Amino acid sequence: MPPPHDGVSLTNKIKTLLCAWKIENIIFSITLDNASSNNSLVYNLKSHLNINKALFCDGEFLHIRCCAHIINLIVQDGLKEIDGVVHKVRESVKYARASQTRKQKFLECIKRVHLDSKRGLRQDVPTRWNSTYLMLDSAIYYRLAWTALELADSN
Questions:
Q1: What InterPro entries does the database record attribute to this sequence (predicted)?
Q2: 3-state secondary structure of 32
Q3: Which of 56, 27, 59 is nearest to 43 (CA)?
Q4: Of 18, 67, 120, 154, which is least packed with CB atoms within 10 Å of its CB?
Q5: Does the pLDDT at position 117 exceed 90?
């Protein structure tokens, strides 16, 4: 949807789509993230749908917060508590993956400590908590390889 993404514009777009799909009288709930414009959208949409008596339980269950978004916010707050550790792991992973020579040296360390190199060293995207989890999980799996790399590489 082109801008603006304010509550009124979003409401108008949703109303248009509901009518086009012929479902404007059978809406039970709508799942949204926590953007402030969505609060306005829900208020306006609820008013519109209530006029047409199209809401179950007067719209009590219309706005359902996105669980994935809420979990992401909670996890991001938790990750701030260990930000120093996550930063060190992230920088270590970046270092090991920065060049073909470093990748090869890390692979040699993995072989030296008899770990599975196919599992892979993961780099995270800081805005996606599950990618940070995957990075930490892979870094922990390769902890013996990190120790071997520390002995083999003074950097």
A1: RNaseH-like_sf (IPR012337), ZnF_BED_domain_contain (IPR052035)
A2: strand
A3: 59
A4: 154
A5: yes
CA-CA-CA-CA dihedral for 140, 141, 147, 153, to nearest 10: -100
Task: Give a yes or no: residue 99 inside a domain.
Answer: yes
30 three-state secondary structure = strand
Whether residue 93 contacts residue 146, with contact meaning beta carbons closer than 8 Å, is answered with: no
pLDDT at 126 over 80: no
Instruction: Judge whether 74 lies within some domain.
Output: no
User: What residues have CB less than 8 Å from 64, skipping those under 6 apart?
Assistant: 29, 30, 31, 32
- Alpha-carbon 86 to chain mean position: 16
Do 52 and 87 lie in a common domain?
no
Report d(CA 154, CA 134) in Å as an integer: 27
Instruction: Find the domain containing 92 and state its range.
Output: 82-152
Predicted model pTM: 0.60
Whether residue 21 is found in the same domain as residue 60: yes
135 domain residue, yes or no? yes
One domain, residues 33 and 93: no
**Alpha-carbon distance 55 to 127, whole Å?**
36
Total number of domains in the chain = 2
Question: pLDDT for 93-112, tens place per residue?
Answer: 999 999 999 999 999 999 99
